[in-house]
Each structure stands twice: as C-alpha cells, then as structure tokens.
Amino acid sequence: MTEENTKTEDLNETGIDKPEVTAAEAEPGDTATEQQSEQAEADPILGDAEGIIDNTARIAALEEELAKTRDQALYAQAEMMNIKRRAEQDVEKAHKFALDKFVSELIPVVESLEKGIENAEQDEGQHETMLEGMRLTLKQLLDALAKFKVEQVDPVGQPFDPNFHQAISMVPNPDMEPNTVMEVFQKGYTLHGRVIRPAMVVVAKAV
Description:
Helix content is about 60%, strand content about 15%. The chain has helices at about 5-15, 30-40, 45, 50-95, 100-120, 130-145, and strands at about 150-155, 165-170, 180-185, 190, 195, 200-205. The protein contains six helices and six strands; from the N terminus they run ααααααββββββ. α5 (about 100-120) runs antiparallel to α6 (about 130-145). The longest helix has about 50 residues, at about 50-95. By secondary structure, the chain is an alpha+beta fold. The protein is elongated, with a radius of gyration of 53 Å. The strands form two sheets. Strands 1-4-5 form a three-stranded antiparallel sheet. β4 (about 190) and β5 form a beta hairpin. The N and C termini lie far apart (about 160 Å).
C-alpha cells in the first residue's frame, strides 16, 4: 500500500471529507416545523390570526350584551316615568275631587233654599224681607261652591247632552227644536267639570 492510499483511508475514517446533510435528506417533520417557525417570525400578524378572530368574536358578544343592557335600562327608566306620572295624576285627582261627598251634602241645602224662595214668590209679595234674605243666602252659598269649581247645570233651551243631562220624558213641542231641553225638573251639578249629578230634564221632540 502506498503512502497516498494510506492517507486517503485515514481521512475517510475520521469523516473529515464527508459531505454535509442536505435539506432533502433531513427529516420531513423537522423541515415543516422550521418553516412554520420561520413564517411566524417573518410575519407575527399571521401567526396571531386565530387570537385576533377570538378577540373580535368576544368584542362583538360584549357589544351585543351592552346594547341589551342599555335597552333594558331605557325601558326601566320609561316605566318609572310612567309610574311617577300616574301617581301625580292620582294625587291631582284626589285633590280635585276630595270635596265630592261634601258637595253632595250641600246640594240639598241649595235646593231647599231655592224651593223656599219659589214658595215665597208665590205668596204675591208677602214676606218680602224673608224672601230677600233667602235669595242672598242662596247666592252666597252658590258663590262659595263656585270657588271650589262646583257649578250648577241648568240647561233650559240648550240641546240635550247625555253627558250632563238625564231625560225623564220627551214631549212634542212645535215651538222648540227637537232634542232641546224644554224644562229642568232637577238641576245638575259638576265638580271640576265632572258630573256629580246629571240634570233631570224634559226634552222636546218633533210633533
């Protein structure tokens, strides 16, 4: 064996002249992992795409929940305003119509005075002093009632209104328009425009 062959064998044994492993000879798994790592390092946005999608979905869900909560709060606020408004209306009505029973008790007093005046007037001028006193008392009483929004309903000659009048009969009358009040049997009364007692009336009808 020559000296040159001996040197060649020695080099082969030590592996100094062996070629490096190529990319094709490397294991497939290692190459794919290295490529993914390189892509993630080269473009971190793409690497975090799944995380961004998850965050977007969570934000959308939170916004939807916030919108529902806002709607519920607005509905509750509107309901509270309605309750407050109804309570104020109830209090206002209670103040307006607290005198309902009181007025009902006073009405017979007014009617007694009116009847006394009517009887005195039929006595052909007798008891004029007493008659004048009764007229004055009646006026004072009606004025006091008017201060509390109590009004008489005396609709002679007016069209019949079922909201304020109660017809007790209908009588043919050629001198009046049909459905006109021709006589008031009993006067009515209102409190703040609400009927306490309707007027009892006789209504004209066509002949």
